[in-house]
Amino acid sequence: MAKKKSKRTRGSDRHADEDSPRKSRRQRAVMADSGQTDTERRILRCDQRRLHDSITTGPLGDEMEDSELGAFREVRDRNNSMFERVNYTREAALDGQNFQAITSRAVRQVDRLIKLNSYDAAKFCRKLREKCSSERGRPSFDWALLGRECGTCFNAVPMNSFMNGPLEKEIEIKVRQKRQANPKMDKNEKEERPEELEKIEKSGNELSAVEDHLKVLSKTLCRRVKQEAEKVDGENKKKVKICAVKFLMNPKSFTQTVENIFHFSYLVKGGKASIGVDKNTGLPVVRPTVNNGKTVGKQSVVAFNMSDWRRLNEAFEISEGDLPDRG
């Protein structure tokens, strides 16, 4: 019966662990998947800044340094409850500032708990007068009693310490070595010089992986534009552009998609390709260009994560990208 009872207890503990808040906190959604609105984030940041001001400048911070009050535990619980609502890095940075402020107050609280022995001159004189005062006839100070009490401190035998080692150690006399003159060089000897390495030029088969991928990007872009131009008649062939999403996306690898976007920026910078927005569809389009030396340098930051990559694959129904998969 005892064994069955122990098994039932373990099973209940397992269910308790599965329902614990720690495990649910690990599996909660963050960032855009959390569904947190901008209003909720704004209210959370106001609460975090208000708590930080009360810790650093308000009277609540001084109360946290007193171990007898419960201010430290109260502030800690408030900060932990706010952390449950943190889903973005901006609020996480404010939470880190609050945690640092709470930690500094905790250090001061520990310093106040460590009390060293302190001596008060007035209190020492009062106790000394009470112990050494003599009431024979009239009150007077018994200097003889003070001398007997303090004599033990001055009549103690000093301790011997041999900081330089034992006394019987023999002293070794150091002998100076004679300096030897530098040997003279023979006139018939030849002076050797380090070998000079010649500059090694890269051949076509020794290009780096980035350069090789840039060539693949440029050739694939020209080939795709040529294929689309065959479907158009007249002067519109020179204005043919292809969809940037379908050209740069790799439905099998998020990492290669990021590399495609990053390497394509080199082609735009070098004037070998251009990127823009289609006026009819509003989608980004790309096309090859000829570098005439009149390119204007521009920079832009693109926010792109794995959830965006999945949504684009589903929206454009991309099963195979224009660029080959690099395995």
Low-confidence stretches: 1-25
Q: From the alpha carbons, calculate the radius of gyration and give it in angstroms.
A: 41 Å
Distance between the termini: 59 Å
Total beta strands: 5
Please indicate the percent range of residues in DSSP E strands (runs of 2 or more): under 5%
Indicate the mean pLDDT.
78
Helix content: 40-55%
Count up the helices. Answer: 12
- The gross shape turns out to be flat
Q: What is the string of SSEs from the N terminus onward?
A: HHHHHHHEEHHEHHEEH
- Main sheet makeup: 3 strands, antiparallel
- Structural class label: mainly alpha
Write out the strand line-up for the largest beta sheet, numbering strands in chain order. Answer: 3-5-4
Could you characterize the architecture of this molecule?
The protein is mainly alpha-helical and 327 residues long. The chain has helices at residues 2-18, 21-26, 38-56, 59-64, 71-83, 89-113, 121-132, 143-154, 209-229, 244-248, 254-269, 306-316; strands spanning 133-134, 140-141, 242-243, 273-277, 284-288. It has a 3-stranded antiparallel beta sheet. Strands 1-2 form a two-stranded antiparallel ribbon. The longest helix is centred in the first third of the chain and has 25 residues, at 89-113. The protein starts with a helix and ends in an 11-residue tail after the last helix.
